[in-house]
Amino acid sequence: MATSSYCATANGAELFTHYASNSRLIGFNSRNRSSKLFLTRTSDFRGVKRCFHVKSVSSEPKQKVQDPVTEEGAESVLSSFAPDAASVASSIRYHAEFTPLFSPERFELPKAFFATAQSVLDSLLINWNATYDFYEKMNLKQAYYLSMEFLQGRALLNAIGNLELTGSYAEALKNLGHNLENVVSQEPDAALGNGGLGRLASCFLDSLATLNYPAWGYGLRYKYGLFKQQITKDGQEELAEDWLELGSPWEIVRNDVSYPIKFYGKVTTGSDGKKYWIGGEDIKAVAYDVPIPGYKTKTTINLRLWSTQVPSADFDLSAFNSGEHTKACEAQANAEKICYILYPGDGSVEGKILRLKQQYTLCSASLQDIIARFERRSGDRIKWEEFPEKVAVQMNDTHPTLCIPELMRILIDLKGLSWKEAWNITKRTVAYTNHTVLPEALEKWSYELMEKLLPRHVEIIQMIDEELVHEIVSKYGSLELDKLEEKLAAMRILENFDIPSSVADLFTKPERLVDADTETVEVSDKVEVVTNDEEDKNEEDDTGKKTSLKPEPGAKDIDKKTTVVPEPAVIPPKMVRMANLCVVGGHAVNGVAEIHSEIVKEEVFNEFYELWPEKFQNKTNGVTPRRWIRFCNPPLSSIITKWTGTEDWVLNTEKLAELQQFVDNEDLQIEWREAKRSNKIKAVSFLKEKTGYSVIPDAMFDIQVKRIHEYKRQLLNIFGIVYRYKKMKEMTAAERKAKYVPRVCIFGGKAFATYVQAKRIVKFITDVGATINHDPEIGDLLKVIFVPDYNVSVAELLIPASDLSEHISTAGMEASGTSNMKFAMNGCIQIGTLDGANVEIREEVGEENFFLFGAQAHEIAGLRKERAEGKFVPDERFEEVKEFVRSGAFGSYNYDDLIGSLEGNEGFGRADYFLVGKDFPSYIECQEKVDEAYRDQKRWTKMSILNTAGSSKFSSDRTIREYAKDIWNIEPVKLP
């Protein structure tokens, strides 16, 4: 046994582990699951010198490592360990010295953050390993959540909160000369997501761990994220995220967990009749694991992120030594760039290939890992028919669609199952969450590109498509031929493809004969020109055979003057429709809000719903109350706990409804307003630091923070602000003060780098803000602020400070939304349309506590038709705003293209597709009601309390329970 001794001076490291007042043996799990450290404390830490004797047990293969669940060891340590501030401080000092990422001279904030995080990870590792081992031994059915995004936010505060160690860490850091809040602020947000899709995934992981469900998340480890947003005089500028520049203390690379990924190549059939995918480009995906702790539970589940690389053998040493450095590194560069950024621009073929590589890497590596785990847990008795009884795979939107053909490929080509067996397993294993009704977001891929990159998968997709065609024909074969063709056109996975030969005879139409009375004849599209002078001319058909264009005997000549020269046929591209593949290959399809799920059934996938109604479900989104009330809003959390008499609401948000009985209590109202104001004061300091603008906390904080997109209608919001500003300018100071309450209008969100119109909107918002914020006549009565680089950490500060939040998308276009739930939980009143989860929020908080405006979803199609027919008459106030913008009131930038999108009756990028002009009058009139309500602070506070009370049903805990019961068929299992 190897033994080492570490000695440190009095101000050096003190090792964090469990120790009793006179104990001498300290044990804890190291970050390598195969080893433990046992350290003997030889002094009482009060002497000048401390010595730790470390015995490495990893070098003793015969020594049995104690089981963390059933044997004494880590579990016994865990059950008895209740670290106080002194123990935590010792841990932090230890990591500052013995897990160094910074030079030893100083203990400044960045170093303090890493040392603190590493000390927290020590605690998490015990639970993490115990959870992992428990699942292995119990061989439970496990859910796997595959998502291209996980918008985690900062992990430190969440982790110590879930471990119930916030007080200990705050005191320990104070004793070490630092403030917990300042240390927490050093952590960069993990750049693994962008919008609600990724934040939902992260809320789900929190709830899965908290509720003790056996589950893992799978994603990609993006080196540079989406982008870091800077706001300049030219609007939005993009820079690479630097979140990994100093490393991440939370991730652990699993060098022993990697899987091969193949691209390109070709498919051959072996002498055994099996398919083999050979040649091409080979890379490997390496696992990086991140612990996800539950709240007040030992369960700590895993988020496994894949990073891509190639073996060292692929480095061309000869080329490098010859001076061809780029060539030598080409294979490594091609592999690594797959995980460089989230959503690489797909305006080029190269960009499309890279996106498809990302999606396949996620699916292939994750499924190989899942299958390896299934085989390991099965031992010597692998029964593939039991795979769906042990595995549930949830596809978060269409990005992981390739799970379906990839699972089929592995089962058929590598595991030797028949097509029927593999298809039955796949359909019982995989489920699909739809997040959009926007046509452009229902992914399609070029068949040609996919065939080149993933040839075997295209073969499998073709077979799935053909099987679907047979099922449709079997179900609807009695329909008229034209209607059957419409069904197939809507439902097939392969778009713009011929009918499979196996059913082609059903669709053969009789040839039309020459009409002797009118002396006309059907002319094939292949004929470019047919004249009497060319009767003897021959040409080749598609098979290379010669075909005569000379009329059949008995047919009348076609007059040369009436010859038709058809336009060259436009051949639509062949596409693979990923959403259709998801519906066909999955056993469940769910929308994420009641109205969205109805639209999915009635419009988006109506034909599929008629064929398989049992597949379709609703699972309204939810958000974790831990991060979005308990940890981000301590003042409000304390009030809720005081007035409900318990902290149970953190795990059972139904308790929030009990606030309703105290809504008229003046003491509660006073406390409620004080909590809101304290949060606003923090936000004031933040806004000053980030933007340079000063605002007052007594103004109404009116906030719209989300992805910048035309359907989310930030343009409607800023046009309303422009209208407000124009009217203010036309009034005297006294009139302004009498009519308007002070407002701080806050925007945040990223426009995708290639989304030109969205970037114009960002530029316009910042220009309006620059004008209004420097207008001395307006002063504090109106401020407009765009917060750069909006992320989870910014949301955690702004949402508790909000008074009014804007969820104003065109009705029927927002699947659900989750920020609306976070705002409601924090007592923020909403102005919005009947869209997404707004519908359910309004029902829960009460119609009188929600500011509703705008057209409803069932009216949208008719309103667009009205516009196309030229019948729409814009409101004069809307026209007034447009002219005001064109006048140059907000600078010299030419906004003709932006405003032009709202004009005309038809055409791409015109005709106000998102109905900004239609809803504008209703919106500004509703904003007048907002002003009126805010003047009555007692009424406003009551509305705020009822919003928090009414958000009791929007916890992700409720959502996860529904997924577990209705889709995954898994049960919560608490560690012993």
Give the strand order, joined by hyphens, for the main sheet. 9-12-13-6-5-14-15-21-22
Radius of gyration: 32 Å
Q: Indicate the overall shape.
A: globular
Low-confidence stretches: 1-81, 518-560
Question: What kind of sheet is the major sheet?
Answer: 9 strands, mixed
Number of helices: 35
CATH fold-level name of the domain at 625-857 and 920-953: Rossmann fold
Number of strand segments: 28
- Mean pLDDT over all positions: 87
**What would CATH call the architecture of the domain at 625-857 and 920-953?**
3-Layer(aba) Sandwich
Give me the secondary-structure category.
alpha/beta
Helix content: 40-55%
CATH superfamily of the domain at 625-857 and 920-953: Glycogen Phosphorylase B
Q: Strand share of the residues?
A: 15-25%
What would you say this structure looks like, in words?
The protein has 976 residues and is an alpha/beta fold. Among the domains are: 83-138 and 164-188, no CATH class; 625-857 and 920-953, Rossmann fold (3-Layer(aba) Sandwich). 42% of the residues lie in helices and 15% in strands. A nine-stranded mixed sheet has the order 9-12-13-6-5-14-15-21-22, with helices on both faces. Helix 2 crosses helix 5 (166-175). The radius of gyration is 32 Å and the shape is globular.
What is the structure about, briefly put?
It is built from 35 helices and 28 strands.
Topology:
Blueprint: E1 2-9, E2 25-29, E3 36-41, E4 49-56, H1 74-80, H2 85-98, H3 109-138, E5 142-146, H4 156-162, H5 166-175, H6 180-184, H7 196-210, E6 215-220, E7 228-232, E8 235-239, E9 252-263, E10 266-269, E11 275-278, E12 281-293, E13 300-309, H8 317-321, H9 325-328, H10 330-336, H11 349-378, H12 387-390, E14 391-396, H13 403-414, H14 419-429, E15 430-433, E16 444-446, H15 447-453, H16 455-476, H17 481-491, E17 494-495, E18 538-540, E19 546-548, E20 575-577, H18 578-585, E21 589-591, H19 594-604, H20 606-611, E22 616-618, H21 625-631, H22 634-644, H23 666-691, E23 700-705, H24 714-729, H25 733-739, E24 743-748, H26 756-772, E25 782-787, H27 792-801, E26 804-807, H28 819-825, E27 829-832, H29 838-845, E28 850-852, H30 860-868, H31 876-886, H32 896-900, H33 916-935, H34 937-950, H35 956-968
Parallel strand pairs: 5-6, 5-14, 6-13, 14-15, 15-21, 21-22, 23-24, 23-26, 24-25, 26-27, 27-28
Antiparallel strand pairs: 1-4, 2-3, 3-4, 7-8, 9-12, 10-11, 12-13, 16-20, 17-20, 18-19
Helix pairs in contact: 2-3, 2-5, 7-35, 11-13, 13-14, 13-16, 15-16, 16-17, 22-23, 23-27, 24-26, 24-31, 24-33
Family: Belongs to the glycogen phosphorylase family.
Main location: plastid
GO molecular function: glycogen phosphorylase activity; pyridoxal phosphate binding
